[in-house]
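stage 2 :: seqdesign
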C-alpha cells in the first residue's frame, strides 16, 4: 500500500497511478446511468427544485435509489452494490449537472449513509442500510452548531442517560443541516454528560426533535437547509453509533470521504460550465466575429479546461489509491483506517477542486458578459452554487492547516520519513553544485521542476519545524503557505503522471491534449510554489539568513517556461472543436 503523503518524498511510477483512461466498462456504464438520470429526470425539474418546493427532491432521490445510484457505497449484504471509490467518484461527477440536487444526493450517500456503513453495528446496518440504499429512507448529517462550525468538538449539544438506562436525552441545536426538511434519519453528534463527544442515529419521528425554517441561501437554493432542534429528545441507547466518547473518529473519517467526493462533483461542474461557456463563445458575435475567435476568450477556455484536467487527474488518482488500499479488506474499521491514510490527499483535493471550480465559474460569467449576471443563463447559477464548496466539509482554511499538520504528525511518529528527507535536502544544498542544463526530452524540464518543487517544500517545512518546533501550529500563515506548496506538488505530479502514462500507452501524438495541459499547468504552478516558499521564508528569517535561504530556494526551483500562449491556443482549439472538455 502506498502511504498517504509519500508523494512528497518518492517518485511514483506512472503505471501505478489510476487515471480516467483506466475506467472499466462497468464504471463507464454506471456513470452513463447517473448522467442520463440527471439529464432526463433532474434537469426538467430544476425550476421546481430551485424554487425549493417540498416534493421534487425526495421523489427524485427515490428514483435514483431504484436505479442503484444511492447504493454504490453500501455493502451488498445490506442491499447495496458495494462498489469501489472510483465508481463512487464517477457518480458524484455525473450528478454535478443536477445543481442543488447533487447537494441533497451527496449528503445522503456520503456523510449521511457512510457513518452507518463504517461504524454501525450489525443490527444498525440491517435496520437502516437497506432503506438508505433504496431511497425509502433519506439521511442527513447533523454536526454543525450555531457556535461550532469548523471547531466541531466545541459542540454544546448534550446527551444524558435516562434514569431507566434505555435512552439518551439529547438537548441542543444543529444548524445548516442539509436534507433536514425531508430526512428520515439524522446522524447527530452530542456530548454525553457534556464531555464525551458521541455519534447517534436519530430517527425523524423521535419525540423532542423539531426543525427550524428553511434557510434562504446565496446558492444551492434547491437544497433543504434547516436547523435540527433537540429538546429532551429520547434516543434509544442502541442508537449510539460507534462508541461513547469516540464520535470524533466517526465525524473526521467520514469528512475525509466527503472531501474526496466533493472533488468528484467539482470535476463535473467544471466540465459543465466549460461546455456552456464554449457554446456561448461560439454563438455570441462581436465586431462581426464569434467571441470564440478572440485570444483572451480562448485563454479563458484553455485555463478552465486545464484546471479540469488537473482536478480530474488528482481526484481519480486519489480514488485509485484508496481502492488499492482496500483490496481484500473486509473489516469496516480497517477500511476506515485505510481511507484515513489518505486524509492529506482528501484535503488537497477538496481545496484544489473547490478553488479550481470557483475560477472556472468566474471566467464562465466573464465570457457571458452581462448575460452571465442574469438568472436567465445557467452560468449565474453555477457561480452562486460553487461558492459553498470552499465552506463544505471543513473550510479551505481548516483543510490548509490539516495538510501540513497531518504530515508533521506522521513524521514525528515515524510513519513518514519526512524529517530525514528534509535533512537530506539541506545536506545536498551544501554539497551539490547547481545544474543549469536544459533537458530537451518530453517532460524533461517538468520532471526536474517537480523534483525541485518537492525539495523546496521539504526545505521550507524543515526550516519552519526547526524554528517553531511544537509552537508551529500557531503559525497559521506559514502552515497555509506550506499547504499551498504541497497542493501544487500533488497537482503537478498527478497531471504529469497521467500524461506520461498516456504517452506510454498511445504515443505522444494521440496524447497531445494531455501533454499540452501539463506544459501549460507547470508554467502556472511553478511560480506559485516559489512564491509561497519565498513568502514563508521571509516570515521566518531576515538579513543574511534570509538571503541564504532564498538563494537555496532559487537553486531548487529552476524552470524554463514554455510558450504558454501557443499551448493555450492549441488547447482552446481542441475544446472549441469538441464543444467542451476534451483530453
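stage 2 :: out
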Amino acid at each position: 500500500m502506498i502511504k498517504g503523503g509519500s508523494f512528497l518524498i518518492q517518485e511514483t511510477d506512472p503505471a501505478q497511478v489510476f487515471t480516467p483512461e483506466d475506467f472499466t466498462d462497468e464504471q463507464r456504464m454506471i456513470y452513463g446511468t447517473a448522467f442520463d438520470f440527471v439529464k432526463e429526470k433532474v434537469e426538467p425539474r430544476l425550476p421546481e427544485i430551485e424554487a425549493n418546493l417540498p416534493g421534487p427532491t425526495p421523489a427524485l432521490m427515490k428514483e435514483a435509489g431504484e436505479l442503484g445510484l444511492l447504493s454504490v457505497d453500501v455493502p451488498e449484504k445490506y442491499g447495496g452494490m458495494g462498489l469501489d471509490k472510483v465508481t463512487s467518484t464517477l457518480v458524484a461527477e455525473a450528478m454535478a449537472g443536477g445543481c442543488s440536487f447533487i447537494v441533497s444526493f451527496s449528503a445522503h450517500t456520503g456523510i449521511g449513509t457512510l457513518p452507518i456503513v463504517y461504524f454501525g453495528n450489525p443490527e444498525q446496518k440491517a435496520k437502516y442500510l437497506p432503506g438508505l440504499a433504496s431511497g425509502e429512507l433519506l439521511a442527513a448529517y447533523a454536526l454543525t452548531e450555531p457556535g461550532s462550525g469548523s471547531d466541531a468538538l466545541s459542540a454544546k449539544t448534550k446527551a444524558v442517560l435516562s434514569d431507566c438506562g434505555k435512552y439518551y436525552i439529547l438537548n441542543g441545536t444543529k444548524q445548516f443541516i442539509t436534507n433536514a426538511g425531508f430526512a428520515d434519519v439524522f446522524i447527530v453528534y452530542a456530548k454525553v454528560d457534556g464531555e464525551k463527544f458521541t455519534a447517534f442515529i436519530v430517527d425523524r419521528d423521535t419525540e423532542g426533535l423539531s426543525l427550524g425554517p428553511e434557510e434562504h441561501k446565496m446558492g444551492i437554493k434547491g437544497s433543504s437547509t434547516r436547523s435540527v432542534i433537540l429538546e429532551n429528545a429520547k434516543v434509544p441507547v442502541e442508537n449510539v453509533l460507534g462508541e461513547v466518547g469516540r464520535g470524533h473518529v466517526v465525524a473526521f473519517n467520514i469528512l475525509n470521504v466527503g472531501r474526496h467526493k466533493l472533488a468528484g462533483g467539482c470535476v463535473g461542474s467544471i466540465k459543465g460550465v466549460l461546455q456552456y461557456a464554449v457554446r456561448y463563445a461560439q454563438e455570441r458575435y462581436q465586431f462581426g466575429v464569434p467571441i470564440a475567435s478572440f485570444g483572451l476568450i480562448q485563454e479563458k477556455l484553455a485555463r478552465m479546461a486545464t484546471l479540469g484536467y488537473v482536478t480530474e487527474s488528482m481526484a481519480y488518482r486519489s480514488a485509485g489509491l484508496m481502492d488499492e488500499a482496500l483490496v481484500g479488506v473486509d473489516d469496516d474499521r480497517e477500511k476506515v483506517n485505510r481511507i484515513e491514510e489518505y486524509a492529506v490527499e482528501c484535503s488537497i483535493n477538496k481545496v484544489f477542486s473547490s478553488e479550481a471550480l470557483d475560477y472556472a465559474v468566474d471566467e464562465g460569467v466573464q465570457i457571458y458578459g452581462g448575460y452571465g449576471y442574469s438568472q436567465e443563463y445557467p452560468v449565474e447559477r453555477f457561480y452562486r452554487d460553487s461558492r459553498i464548496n470552499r465552506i463544505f466539509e471543513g473550510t479551505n482554511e481548516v483543510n490548509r492547516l490539516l495538510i501540513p499538520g497531518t504530515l508533521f504528525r506522521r513524521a514525528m511518529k515515524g510513519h513518514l520519513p519526512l524529517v530525514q528527507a528534509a535533512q537530506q535536502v539541506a545536506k545536498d544544498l551544501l554539497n551539490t553544485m547547481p545544474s543549469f542544463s536544459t533537458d530537451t526530452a518530453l517532460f524533461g524540464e517538468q520532471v526536474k521542476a517537480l523534483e525541485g518543487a518537492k525539495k523546496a517544500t521539504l526545505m521550507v517545512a524543515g526550516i519552519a519545524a526547526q524554528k517553531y518546533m511544537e509552537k508551529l501550529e500557531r503559525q497559521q500563515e506559514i502552515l497555509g503557505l506550506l499547504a499551498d506548496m504541497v497542493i501544487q506538488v500533488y497537482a503537478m505530479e498527478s497531471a504529469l503522471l497521467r500524461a506520461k502514462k498516456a504517452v506510454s500507452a498511445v504515443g505522444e501524438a494521440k496524447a497531445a491534449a494531455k501533454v499540452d495541459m501539463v506544459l501549460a499547468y507547470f508554467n502556472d504552478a511553478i511560480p506559485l510554489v516559489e512564491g509561497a516558499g519565498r513568502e514563508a521564508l521571509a516570515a521566518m528569517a531576515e538579513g543574511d539568513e534570509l538571503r541564504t535561504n532564498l538563494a537555496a530556494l532559487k537553486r531548487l526551483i529552476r524552470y524554463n517556461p514554455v510558450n504558454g500562449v501557443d499551448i493555450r491556443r492549441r488547447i482552446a482549439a481542441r475544446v472549441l472543436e469538441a464543444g467542451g472538455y476534451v483530453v
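stage 3 :: structure notes
- The first helix runs from residue 25 to 42.
- The CA atoms of residues 180 and 543 lie 57 Å apart.
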